Every structure is written in structure tokens, then in C-alpha cells.
Amino acid sequence: MTAKTELTGDVWVARAGLAAPWLAGGSAVAILFSIAAAQILLGAAILALMVARSRWRFPAIGWPVVALLIWTLVAMGAAGELRAGWPQLKKFFVFAEFAVIATACGTVPRARAVLMAMAGAGTLSALWSFVQFGRRNLEAVALHEDFYTYYTPRRTTGFMSHWMTFSGELVVVLGVLVALAFWANRSVTATPLVPGRWAAIFTNRWAALGLAAVAAVALVLNQTRSIWLAAAAVVVYLVAAWQPRWLLALPVLAVAGYLASPEAVQERVRSIVEPHGETDSNQHRAVTRAAGIEMISAHPLFGLGPEMPGKRFLEFVPKDMLPLPVGYYGHLHNLYLQLAAERGLPALAVLLWLFAALVRGAGQQRDLVLRHAAVAAVIATAVGGLFEYNLGNSEVLHIFLAVTACGFAVAEPVDRRAVA
């Protein structure tokens, strides 16, 4: 009876080890479709790894995440707002995605396969956004409304529920696609990653560049200006790492793209310096920026507490900026100001530590696709965070962690039980 019980236990361990990579990879891909599905798969992957008795890997960001968690608890205690900060504590569950991918999909072939699957899902989301853009156009015509005014608060969302979530995810996918186009055929590991012609799409330079163009056009039509800046930074980095001489072509391509784009897109570009009153968020962002600086000046060490900047916003708005322009004031629309206002300047220092650890660690990756895709994800998130509280969005945090975790894949399994 004992031998039979042990045999049954061994079977469960083996099955869990086989299931873990599929559940982990599925979680990374599902975040482009559904946050609920992604988090269910993440929880299942954690359970499978525990059953398989796998040796967990949390490279590079383990200590920064622990430090951020501890300081979040300290900030909550100092503010006396334990209940209000609960949503931010729950968000730490998403950080497990990094460890799950690094553990279950932590070999180079598996990490590359995860990136290709995410790139495919992101491309489908981009294609669906084209349909949404066409529908918005028809709706504006039917209502006899100016398209720019109608579309700006109703932008494309892909498979997501909000245009900021969609664009925040897609800019990371863009980095993955360009990295595949530039290096998939000549990286250290050139073995086939997945069977069939599907893999060839992502390892053929022109095919991958075509998919990257689809993602880029979707981002242009999405008209989220902060993500345009993030996408530009990602492309500049990747081109500089690939063939620096091609950087000279980027301004020409940018001008050509502007001239070829629809009038609504050109109008959105001009709105950076010539906003359309309160239709564009220029005034709104100026107010949130000023209020955030006031919050940090008043509470530099512990902040106001997680989730509190939105609740106490009116206390810190400069009087000459009232009445408030149209916009959402639940957060500060800036990752760095939000974190410092919520949890103090030490929390901001931890975030910068986390970014630096990711770039430094991924920079040691020998596989060029994984290295540059991970660094591009950090750049996209860091630049996008200048104008949006992007890591406060669970979907964006999830995809950021999944792609950066792939940058820490190893040539051989760290724990064969996890990849048997």
C-alpha cells in the first residue's frame, strides 16, 4: 500500500511538472485577452509548481519586490488607512507572474515560445482594434459629430476594456515583435521553438516586421500620445542595438508616417502643443502633476498611503487651477508621482532599483531576442509611466513581468523537476 501511495504521489509530481509550463505560458498569453483568465491560470501555475516541488526562481527583482511590499505596509500603517490600501496589497499577487515564468518557462526555448505566443495574441488584438476604429468612424458619421471629438474619449481597446490598457500592453508586444525580427534567426539558440509554420512567422525577419507594423499602426490609430513616446523610445533602442546606422532612417519614417496618417491622427499629434480645450488631457495632466508635487512635498517619507492621492486630491490642488478641468482624478496619471505620493520617496527609489535590476540582469542574457525584448519592456513601461500610472493597471503589470522574466531564462533547466 505504501509503495502504491508513493507511486501515485510521484505521478502527481510528474504531471504537475508537465502542466506548470503550459499554465504559466497560458497566463502570460491570456493577459492579452482576459485578466480573469490570466490570474486563474497564474494561480493554477503556482499550485502546479508547488505540487511538482520545483525550485523557485525570482532573479533580479526578488529583493526590490520584497522591499516595495514592506514599505507599502509601512506607508499604510503610517497613514492609518489599512482598508484603503488593500487593493494595492492584492496587486502583489501579480508579481508572482515573474517567478512563475522564470521557474516554469525559464529555459531559452520555452521563454522564446512564450514570447512568440504573446506576440501572436497581441497581433490579433491589434487587428481587432482596426475593426473598432472603423466602427467609431461610422458612428461619428451617423451622429454627424466631428470624428476627433467623438473618438478621443472612445478610442480603440483591442481585446481590453480601456484604451490605456490596450496601448500599454501593445507597446510591450511591439518590442517583442521587433526583437524577434532583428535577432530570432541569429541568436545564440537557433533551434526550432515550436513545431509547424506558425513559428516560422516569428523567426522570418520580414514576416515579423510585418506583424510589428500591424502593432505600430494599431498604436498610431489608438492615439494615446504617451504610448507614442514609449513606442518611439522602444524602437530607437532596438534599432540602436541592432544596426545603429539605421537610426538615421527613423526621422524620415516618422515624417512619412505622419503625412500618410488620417487627419484625426495628425490632429492628435498637433494637440501636444495645440490642445483642443478639455477634449485633450493637457490641462488635466498639468493639474494632477501640480497636485502630486504638493503631496510629495507635504509627505515625502511615507506618502499619503496607498490609494489615498485620489481620495485627498482636492486638498493639494493649487487654488489657481480650480475649477478642475474635465478628467479622471482617481490617480495622478504618472507612475513616479503616484508611487511617491502614495508611499513616499523611498518607494520611488525601490521602483527605480527594480527597473535597474531588470536591465542589468537581462543585459547578461546571451539570447539576443530575450535580452532585447526584456529591456524594451522596461523602456516601454518606464517611459509610458511618465504620463500614466501604468503599473497600477494589473494587465500592464502582468505583461511587463512576463516579458521581463523571459529575459532571465537559462540555457539548461535549473530544476529538471520543473521542466520534465
Task: Please explain how this structure is put together.
The chain has 420 residues and is mostly helical. It has one domain. The chain has 19 helices and no strands. It has helices spanning 2-30, 35-51, 62-79, 86-90, 96-104, 108-142, 147-151, 163-183, 197-203, 205-222, 225-242, 249-260, 263-270, 282-298, 308-311, 335-343, 345-362, 368-384, 394-406. Helix 1 (2-30) runs antiparallel to helix 2 (35-51), helix 8 runs parallel beside helix 11 (225-242) and helix 18 (368-384) packs antiparallel against helix 19. The longest helix is centred in the first third of the chain and has 35 residues, at 108-142. It is globular. It starts with a helix and ends in a 14-residue tail after the last helix. Mean pLDDT is 90; it is low at 188-193 and 414-420.
